[in-house]
Amino acid sequence: MRASQLFAPTLREVPAEAEIVSHQLMMRSGMIRKTASGVYTYMPIAWRVMKKIMNIIREEMDAEGGQELMMPGVQPAELWLKSGRWDVYGEELWRLKDRHGRDFCLGPTHEEVITTIVAGDVKSYRDLPLRLYQIQTKYRDERRPRFGLMRGREFIMKDLYSFDRDDAALEESYQAMYRAYTNIFTRCGLKFRPVQADNGAIGGTASHEFMVLAQSGEAEILYCSECRYAASAEIAQSGSDQESNKEEAKNREEVYTPDCKTIDDLAGFLKISPEKTIKALCYKADDELVLVLIRGDRTVNEIKLKNALACLDLQMATDEDITRVMGSSMGFVGPVGLKGVKILADLEVPNMTNGVCGANKKDYHLINVNPDRDFSIDQTADLRLAKAGEPCPECGGKLLSARGIEAGQIFKLGNKYSKSMGAKYLDETGREQLMVMGCYGIGVGRTMAAAIEQNFDDDGIIWPISIAPYHVVVVPVSDRSEEQVQVAESIYLKLINKKVETVCDDRKERPGVKFKDADLIGYPLRITVGSKTLAEGKVEVKVRSTGEVHLVEVGKAADFAEQLLKEL
Question: Do residues 105 and 113 touch, judged by C-beta distance below 8 A?
């Protein structure tokens, strides 16, 4: 490719709308252009990278028995109503009507479609296992699209769906995809970590996210310093640092605590540690008011809480709700004597002795409160937000924190969709059984953006060699020098003949512009043909990732570059 023909309109200034590095560099290097909020055009440079990522994905999916197909982007509402997700998915589901008034959606995912297809055509255990995938545009009407390709309303995703006879067979499919994902992100040259994750609107029984490690990552992950435990902050657990409490239960008392609406205010007023307090928070779960109890120095993890309640909508209760149902006010709510309200407690609460909680009376709290004796708990669950520094739930080691970008996620769905969509098969005895499913997604654009977030410097992108748009750029310093142009052309043609993906920067631009564009776009190797080195019969070969420079004889430049690329 000649740079004079390459459609890569670079920018010198950082676009005001670009908040993170990948968005800035993709805009500046001419990789993407915004069409609408959260909707982008992939320009030629970006599309070359995307195709390389997709080819790696296809090879690894096929290696694990995947078969590629293509499903429609427009899906009828009937399928989503049948699965029960038409309302569950929420406002992100992009709904539309056809000319006859029938409801459809733009597919954010394809569990309903693929399950319906398999349910109609697979009848026997002999047809299983089955692993079907596609690489296709998906749509989610994000409330606040941002960060370029990280959170868009239209994006390209690989989604594979596995259909198996039972849980043991599903485990084999799950592990096959775990291996494939590990290979994919390794081949893409990324530093990543698989972590336990929340299933979200997809549902199912287990999930792992593949997080590309980057300081700009939108998600926090917690991992153990001693063992292999790792999980997203959304579901991460930690061991309790609460020592065995041998304190004897004391008599409960009501104390005057004026204006102590927060845990810090209360602990300071009573001269106690916050961990001695019981924090009571009021939530509305699908319009039902619930009281959540947690140790005062802890934070409620609302993802865990929503999963524990199995509700569709979770919001903090208003002051009006609290007064109307509990007859109390914010900051003084407590579980003692409370009737008609479901009480959930974090796992640490039942083990507390002589705690402090609200008295359901303005400016009053209760001291020496003990669970079971003073109040009942309807449900206990892990409800707290785990934090770095706390003990690992598996080995007791110290939890550490890192930031990550979710590039892929795998799910064990079980029979969630096969049951609602009627995906059954006949076993060896002729008995009808539900298929057991899994689903596995990779964001192609997200993977590209994550690669940039992990590989850049002040000058631009530093591509992993496996997904670089081109591998070499040949730059004649002066387009007015016939010798430089001829030597550059000769090296360029030799590299092309060797099947090395090469760009010859034949533009009539200043040398500084060519060099800046080369670094911005991120070609792994730059071969510079200039008068000083040509005087010695040599050219300069520079490695983008290290800045290392080699002076190589003109006649050996193509061979040298080819060999150097194999070592990167």
Answer: no
3-class secondary-structure state, position 447:
helix
213 has which bridge partners?
404
Q: What is the pLDDT of residue 199?
A: 64
Hey, what CATH class is 253-381 in? alpha beta
pLDDT of the residue at 244? 52
Query: Could you report how far apart the first and last alpha carbons of the chain are, in Å?
Result: 22
Which is nearest to 550 in space by CA: 534, 562, 538?
Answer: 538
Domain ranges of the chain: 48-233+401-452, 253-381, 470-567
- Domain at 470-567, CATH class: alpha beta
Cβ-Cβ contacts under 8 Å for 113 (sequence gap 6 or more)? 71, 72, 75, 79, 107
Q: How many Cα atoms within 13 Å fall on the side-chain side of residue 110?
A: 25
DSSP 11-46: -SSPPTT--SHHHHHHHHTTSEEEEETTEEEE-HHH
Phi, psi of 210, rounded to the nearest 5 degrees: -100, 105
Give the SS3 label for residue 167.
helix
d(C-alpha 405, C-alpha 390), whole Å: 23
**Which residues share a beta bridge with 474?**
504, 527
Question: Is domain 48-233+401-452 annotated with CATH 3.40.50.720?
Answer: no
Given the DSSP bridges, would you call strands 379-381 and 206-213 parallel, antiparallel or unpaired? unpaired
Residue 542 is encoded by which pair of tokens?
């520079």
Residue 305 φ/ψ region, left for φ over 0, alpha for ψ in the -120 to 50 degree band, beta for the rest: alpha
8 A C-beta contact, residue 134 and residue 69? yes
Backbone angles phi, psi at 103, to 5 degrees: -85, 135
Whole-number Å distance between alpha carbons of 426 and 433: 6
Q: Which helix (H) or strand (E) holds 52?
A: helix 44-63
pLDDT digits (tens, 9 = 90+) for 271-314: 999 999 999 999 999 989 999 999 999 999 998 999 899 888 89
SS3 content of the chain, % helix, strand, coil (to 5): 30, 30, 40
Contact, 397 vs 224, CB < 8 A? Answer: yes
pTM of the shown model: 0.85
The 10 Å Cβ neighbour count of residue 424 is 16
Half-sphere exposure of 15 (CA within 13 A, CB side): 21
